[in-house]
Amino acid sequence: MTSVPPAGPREGAGQPFRTVHWVGDAAGGRLRMIDQTLLPTEFVEIDCDDVESVWWAIKRLSVRGAPAIGVAAAYGSVIGARSRGTADAATVREALRTAASRLRTSRPTAVNLFWALDRMEAVADAAPPGDGPALLDRLLAEADAIAEEDRAMCRAIGRHGAGLIAAGDGVLTHCNAGGLATADYGTALAVIFSAHEQGKKLHVFADETRPLLQGARLTAWELAGRGIDVTVICDNMAAQVMKEGRVQAVVVGADRIAANGDSANKIGTYGVAVLAKHHGIPFYVAAPSSTFDLSMPDGSGIPIEERDPREVTEGFGRRTAPEGVGVYNPAFDVTPAALITGIVTERGVIGPVSTETVRAVLAAPPASS
Ligand code: MRU
Predict the structure, then answer these.
(1) 368 falls in which pLDDT band (50, 70, 90)?
(2) For 277-306, what is each residue's pLDDT tens digit?
(3) Domain that holds residue 195
(4) What 8-state DSSP symbol labels residue 236?
(5) Is the pLDDT of residue 362 over 70?
(6) Residue 13 pLDDT more than 70?
């Protein structure tokens, strides 16, 4: 499992790798995922068959990206639900609750994690008393549905967003919002993949995305695998590349979008949005409806994860700052809606972005395929 396969699509099907999926039945199966910390030099899949290993996989970013975290947590809760046996539905339900509350502590920003676990708990709550194995099967079916719906939403995002990109455009993206961040195909990268599949020749600038380099390691791998021209730049080069006239659109993903459209995404996204505004370049966010948190009126309440300082000072395997200096390592920032030209969802494009337009587009019927 250690050779690195190309990231390109199979003929007539999805991507050739499976970011996160279930293997086996509900009673004995396990969660399999790509260990993304090792890409692009090693392709290794890891199996999880207890809640703690799922928690760690999310925490350490073996699986990452808001929708993929939600899918992993849903399957992780199935593993937890069977941990005390399946003698009756009440036992399964209580074990699921314990697993869900543990998984909720893995990462705070991506709302898809909480959304997926809420769905799993709602299924357990609605189950009739009695049959434990039947509830476990029902929970696995719900986790499968979450993954399948994510695939469909990503394809629809691609369809809705492709028209925003013109042939010959330079497109800048930040972090990784591709197939590795979702069940399949991605969000921001879905827009790019879909435009590319329509025959538009594009050139993508991938911000390397310090400190963990999701752009250089993961986005560049996915784009190159699909034969899309990609150039990796350090994060601090985006202004210069824009000033040189090489960027006609910016497309990024999101971890949580408030009711007014304020969007949390990987640290550095806000800066890119400010730069895009200055240079008159449209700035798009691409995300499924599962990434919206309508309980938050604006982005000021979105919890921002702070990560280990060593990601900044020792991220390249050697110390790059003196021992003992202070480090601040927020993993996300919030881009105000005023800087966002449009939000591409599976239900259509929201733009201009406001509480009213967010509400109107999210009320549209969901994607059919
Ligand atoms: O810390 P990560 O790698 O999980 O951060 C991921 C991002 O910020 C993505 O852009 C976001 O989750 C959207 S993924 C479709």
Answers:
(1) low
(2) 999 999 999 999 999 999 999 999 999 999
(3) 163-363
(4) G
(5) yes
(6) no
Q: Each residue of 139-165: pLDDT tens digit?
A: 999 999 999 999 999 999 999 999 999
> Whose CA is closest to atom 6 on ligand 1?
65
- Judged against a pLDDT cut of 80, whether residue 7 lies above it is answered with no
Distance in angstroms (rounded) separating the CA atoms of residues 69 and 106: 10
- Asked if residue 168 and residue 100 are part of one domain, the reply reads no
Domain limit, last residue, from 154, 181, 198: 154
Q: Which of 100, 133, 154 is the C-terminal boundary of a domain?
A: 154
As for ligand 1, residues whose beta carbon falls within 6 Å of it are 61, 64-67, 110, 175, 177, 181-182, 186-187, 214, 253-255, 265-266, 331
CA 131–ligand 1 middle distance (angstroms): 38
Token pair listed for 353: 């972005």
Rounded to the nearest whole angstrom, what is the distance from the C-alpha of residue 208 to the centroid of ligand 1?
A: 13
In a domain, 368, yes or no: no
- Specify the pLDDT at position 16: 85
Same domain, 230 and 307: yes
**CA 65 to ligand 1: nearest atom:** 12
Instruction: Point out the residues that are catalytic.
Output: 255
Q: Per the domain annotation, does 214 fall within a domain?
A: yes
Looking at the chain, the whole-number percentage of residues with pLDDT higher than 70 is 95
129 CA → ligand 1 middle, Å: 39
Residue 63, C-beta contacts closer than 8 angstroms, at least 6 positions apart: 19, 20, 33, 34, 36, 57, 69, 72
Closest ligand 1 atom to 110 CA: 12
Instruction: For residue 233, give the CATH number of its domain.
Output: 3.40.50.10470
Rg, C-alpha atoms of the chain = 20
| Single-letter amino acid code for the residue at 355 | T
**Amino acid found at 193:** F
Q: Which residues pair with 231 in a beta bridge?
A: 205
Atom of ligand 1 nearest to the CA of 265: 8
The strand pair at 229-233 and 203-207 is best described as: parallel
